[in-house]
């Protein structure tokens, strides 16, 4: 089974033939030519509250009578863990690469990222490393302290999925079928830079200066 524009791959699976009693025996192997299709919707995924993972903290102190401009920058590798559990009882190979996006929770809804090949491990988990990068200009007013905190939001979601395709038996026979279950994982979604201005005595500034816009703030696959 193949649909244009839908990635497909080949997964070895185990499915037993029917016996005389209508039940399936457990000693027959087959291959599955499948597609991965995910239809996200507003009510088909569950999300645990997002949390912030702090990546860096920088304090800039200006004891002079003139405002100063500096920049904070850096990168850090974070690891997200995802797993696929099945509810159909069909056994799939231990680890198989499929071309598919990963469900993520963005702006209050579940969507699918376009990240290409991903390792499908049935009833297991896969670690995925990503690099978080940032570059933020900072204005430090005269006789002030500006504290910069860099963090990445992290959310855990559970989303149903379906692998759609056909069973291919050693005899050459083909039968349509599906493997379904639940995708669960943690997703690093967004990088945030928080800037707080204080007086030299540690009290919050009454009128914080307007800070420049971020010039680089992104998450990319770790190379």
UniProtKB/TrEMBL annotation:
<feature type="region of interest" description="Disordered">
    <location>
        <begin position="1"/>
        <end position="52"/>
    </location>
</feature>
<dbReference type="InterPro" id="IPR053237">
    <property type="entry name" value="Natterin_C"/>
</dbReference>
<protein>
    <submittedName>
        <fullName>Aerolysin family beta-barrel pore-forming toxin</fullName>
    </submittedName>
</protein>
<dbReference type="InterPro" id="IPR004991">
    <property type="entry name" value="Aerolysin-like"/>
</dbReference>
<feature type="compositionally biased region" description="Basic and acidic residues">
    <location>
        <begin position="21"/>
        <end position="33"/>
    </location>
</feature>
<dbReference type="Pfam" id="PF03318">
    <property type="entry name" value="ETX_MTX2"/>
</dbReference>
